[in-house]
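sry for the spam today, last one i promise. C-alpha coordinates for design, 192 residues
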Protein backbone atom coordinates (compact mmCIF):
# COMPACT_ATOMS: atom_id res chain seq x y z
CA UNK A 1 0.00 0.00 0.00
CA UNK A 2 1.50 3.31 -1.07
CA UNK A 3 1.75 6.13 1.47
CA UNK A 4 -0.26 9.30 0.84
CA UNK A 5 3.00 11.05 -0.07
CA UNK A 6 3.81 8.38 -2.64
CA UNK A 7 0.30 8.52 -4.08
CA UNK A 8 0.54 12.32 -4.39
CA UNK A 9 3.94 12.08 -6.08
CA UNK A 10 2.53 9.68 -8.66
CA UNK A 11 -0.46 11.96 -9.19
CA UNK A 12 1.80 15.00 -9.63
CA UNK A 13 3.82 13.20 -12.29
CA UNK A 14 0.60 12.57 -14.23
CA UNK A 15 -0.55 16.19 -13.73
CA UNK A 16 2.65 17.51 -15.28
CA UNK A 17 1.69 15.93 -18.58
CA UNK A 18 -1.92 17.17 -18.53
CA UNK A 19 -3.26 18.56 -21.81
CA UNK A 20 -6.94 18.76 -20.82
CA UNK A 21 -6.90 22.54 -21.34
CA UNK A 22 -4.47 25.02 -22.90
CA UNK A 23 -3.15 26.53 -19.65
CA UNK A 24 -0.33 24.00 -19.42
CA UNK A 25 1.10 25.37 -22.66
CA UNK A 26 1.28 28.95 -21.36
CA UNK A 27 2.27 28.43 -17.71
CA UNK A 28 5.85 27.79 -16.54
CA UNK A 29 5.05 24.88 -14.28
CA UNK A 30 2.19 23.00 -12.63
CA UNK A 31 1.50 24.13 -9.07
CA UNK A 32 0.28 20.85 -7.56
CA UNK A 33 -0.15 21.90 -3.95
CA UNK A 34 1.99 21.70 -0.85
CA UNK A 35 1.91 20.69 2.77
CA UNK A 36 1.31 17.59 4.85
CA UNK A 37 -0.35 14.74 2.92
CA UNK A 38 -1.77 13.57 6.28
CA UNK A 39 -3.26 17.01 7.02
CA UNK A 40 -6.67 17.34 8.68
CA UNK A 41 -7.23 20.67 6.96
CA UNK A 42 -7.00 21.29 3.24
CA UNK A 43 -7.19 24.86 1.92
CA UNK A 44 -8.34 25.24 -1.67
CA UNK A 45 -7.72 28.50 -3.53
CA UNK A 46 -8.37 29.51 -7.11
CA UNK A 47 -5.33 29.35 -9.39
CA UNK A 48 -1.61 30.11 -9.26
CA UNK A 49 -0.44 33.68 -9.83
CA UNK A 50 2.93 34.95 -11.07
CA UNK A 51 4.96 34.07 -7.97
CA UNK A 52 3.36 30.65 -7.72
CA UNK A 53 4.08 30.01 -11.40
CA UNK A 54 7.73 30.97 -10.83
CA UNK A 55 8.23 28.84 -7.74
CA UNK A 56 5.81 25.93 -8.21
CA UNK A 57 4.38 26.57 -4.73
CA UNK A 58 0.82 27.70 -3.96
CA UNK A 59 0.15 30.96 -2.11
CA UNK A 60 3.65 32.43 -2.00
CA UNK A 61 2.80 35.95 -3.22
CA UNK A 62 1.04 38.75 -1.33
CA UNK A 63 -2.09 36.65 -0.69
CA UNK A 64 0.14 33.84 0.57
CA UNK A 65 1.89 36.16 3.03
CA UNK A 66 -1.49 37.20 4.38
CA UNK A 67 -2.56 33.55 4.61
CA UNK A 68 0.65 32.73 6.52
CA UNK A 69 -0.05 35.55 8.99
CA UNK A 70 -3.56 34.28 9.67
CA UNK A 71 -2.31 30.70 10.07
CA UNK A 72 0.33 31.89 12.55
CA UNK A 73 -2.29 33.77 14.55
CA UNK A 74 -4.25 30.57 15.18
CA UNK A 75 -1.01 28.66 15.76
CA UNK A 76 -1.42 26.44 12.74
CA UNK A 77 1.82 25.62 10.97
CA UNK A 78 1.62 25.97 7.21
CA UNK A 79 3.48 22.66 6.90
CA UNK A 80 0.76 20.96 8.95
CA UNK A 81 -2.05 21.77 6.51
CA UNK A 82 -2.35 21.05 2.80
CA UNK A 83 -2.80 23.91 0.33
CA UNK A 84 -3.97 23.47 -3.25
CA UNK A 85 -5.93 25.27 -5.95
CA UNK A 86 -8.94 24.57 -8.14
CA UNK A 87 -6.72 25.20 -11.19
CA UNK A 88 -3.15 23.93 -11.11
CA UNK A 89 -1.80 26.10 -13.95
CA UNK A 90 -1.56 29.88 -14.02
CA UNK A 91 -4.06 31.61 -16.33
CA UNK A 92 -2.27 34.21 -18.50
CA UNK A 93 -2.20 37.72 -16.97
CA UNK A 94 -3.89 36.31 -13.85
CA UNK A 95 -7.29 36.33 -15.49
CA UNK A 96 -10.01 34.23 -13.88
CA UNK A 97 -9.87 30.61 -15.00
CA UNK A 98 -12.69 29.84 -17.43
CA UNK A 99 -15.46 27.36 -16.50
CA UNK A 100 -13.95 24.95 -19.05
CA UNK A 101 -10.48 25.21 -17.47
CA UNK A 102 -11.91 24.71 -14.01
CA UNK A 103 -13.88 21.68 -15.22
CA UNK A 104 -10.78 20.23 -16.91
CA UNK A 105 -8.78 20.48 -13.68
CA UNK A 106 -11.55 19.19 -11.41
CA UNK A 107 -10.60 15.46 -11.61
CA UNK A 108 -7.08 16.32 -10.38
CA UNK A 109 -8.47 18.11 -7.36
CA UNK A 110 -10.85 15.25 -6.62
CA UNK A 111 -7.93 12.81 -6.71
CA UNK A 112 -5.93 15.01 -4.33
CA UNK A 113 -8.86 15.12 -1.91
CA UNK A 114 -9.40 11.34 -2.14
CA UNK A 115 -5.73 10.74 -1.27
CA UNK A 116 -5.46 13.29 1.54
CA UNK A 117 -8.93 12.68 3.00
CA UNK A 118 -8.98 15.91 4.99
CA UNK A 119 -11.43 16.28 7.86
CA UNK A 120 -12.13 19.84 6.79
CA UNK A 121 -11.87 21.55 3.41
CA UNK A 122 -11.52 25.32 3.65
CA UNK A 123 -12.47 27.06 0.44
CA UNK A 124 -10.74 30.36 -0.30
CA UNK A 125 -12.86 32.62 -2.46
CA UNK A 126 -15.90 32.36 -4.65
CA UNK A 127 -14.52 30.07 -7.34
CA UNK A 128 -13.42 27.44 -4.88
CA UNK A 129 -16.70 27.62 -2.92
CA UNK A 130 -18.72 27.42 -6.12
CA UNK A 131 -17.13 24.10 -7.12
CA UNK A 132 -18.43 22.38 -4.00
CA UNK A 133 -21.44 24.44 -2.99
CA UNK A 134 -22.94 25.42 -6.31
CA UNK A 135 -25.43 28.27 -6.34
CA UNK A 136 -24.51 29.64 -2.91
CA UNK A 137 -23.49 33.23 -2.23
CA UNK A 138 -20.16 33.68 -0.48
CA UNK A 139 -21.42 36.90 1.14
CA UNK A 140 -24.08 34.80 2.88
CA UNK A 141 -22.18 31.65 3.85
CA UNK A 142 -18.64 32.84 4.63
CA UNK A 143 -17.62 31.84 8.15
CA UNK A 144 -20.02 28.89 8.24
CA UNK A 145 -19.57 25.14 8.18
CA UNK A 146 -21.35 23.26 5.41
CA UNK A 147 -21.66 19.48 5.28
CA UNK A 148 -22.24 18.23 1.79
CA UNK A 149 -22.01 15.03 -0.21
CA UNK A 150 -19.96 15.69 -3.31
CA UNK A 151 -19.81 13.12 -6.14
CA UNK A 152 -16.31 11.64 -6.24
CA UNK A 153 -15.42 12.42 -2.62
CA UNK A 154 -18.53 11.63 -0.57
CA UNK A 155 -19.69 13.43 2.57
CA UNK A 156 -17.34 16.25 3.45
CA UNK A 157 -17.10 19.23 5.81
CA UNK A 158 -16.52 22.62 4.20
CA UNK A 159 -15.69 25.91 5.84
CA UNK A 160 -16.12 28.93 3.63
CA UNK A 161 -13.74 31.90 3.59
CA UNK A 162 -13.21 34.95 1.43
CA UNK A 163 -10.08 34.86 -0.73
CA UNK A 164 -7.04 36.48 0.94
CA UNK A 165 -6.19 38.34 -2.30
CA UNK A 166 -9.68 39.84 -2.50
CA UNK A 167 -9.60 40.78 1.18
CA UNK A 168 -6.07 42.16 1.17
CA UNK A 169 -6.98 45.67 0.06
CA UNK A 170 -10.61 45.77 1.16
CA UNK A 171 -10.81 46.90 4.79
CA UNK A 172 -14.14 45.40 5.76
CA UNK A 173 -13.65 42.13 3.88
CA UNK A 174 -10.23 41.85 5.48
CA UNK A 175 -11.72 42.22 8.96
CA UNK A 176 -14.38 39.63 8.12
CA UNK A 177 -11.81 37.17 6.79
CA UNK A 178 -9.63 37.55 9.87
CA UNK A 179 -12.66 37.04 12.13
CA UNK A 180 -13.80 33.95 10.18
CA UNK A 181 -10.25 32.57 10.17
CA UNK A 182 -10.02 32.80 13.97
CA UNK A 183 -13.00 30.44 14.19
CA UNK A 184 -11.14 27.58 12.43
CA UNK A 185 -9.93 25.82 15.64
CA UNK A 186 -13.50 25.80 17.00
CA UNK A 187 -14.88 24.51 13.71
CA UNK A 188 -12.31 21.71 13.66
CA UNK A 189 -13.06 20.78 17.28
CA UNK A 190 -16.77 20.61 16.47
CA UNK A 191 -16.31 18.02 13.72
CA UNK A 192 -13.91 15.73 15.63
N1 LIG B 1 -4.29 32.82 -5.30
C1 LIG B 1 -4.76 31.56 -5.38
O1 LIG B 1 -5.96 31.33 -5.45
N2 LIG B 1 -3.89 30.58 -5.35
C2 LIG B 1 -2.60 30.76 -5.24
O2 LIG B 1 -1.87 29.78 -5.20
C3 LIG B 1 -2.13 32.08 -5.15
C4 LIG B 1 -2.98 33.10 -5.20
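last one done:
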Amino acid sequence: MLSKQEQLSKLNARMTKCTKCTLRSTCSRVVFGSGDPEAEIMFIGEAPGKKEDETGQPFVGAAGKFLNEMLAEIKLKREAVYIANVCKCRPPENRDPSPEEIAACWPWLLEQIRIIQPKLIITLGRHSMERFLTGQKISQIHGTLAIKTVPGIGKQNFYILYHPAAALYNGSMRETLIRDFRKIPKVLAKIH
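Residues 45-49, 52, 58-59, 61, 63, 85, 165 surround uracil (CB under 6 Å). ok im logging off now
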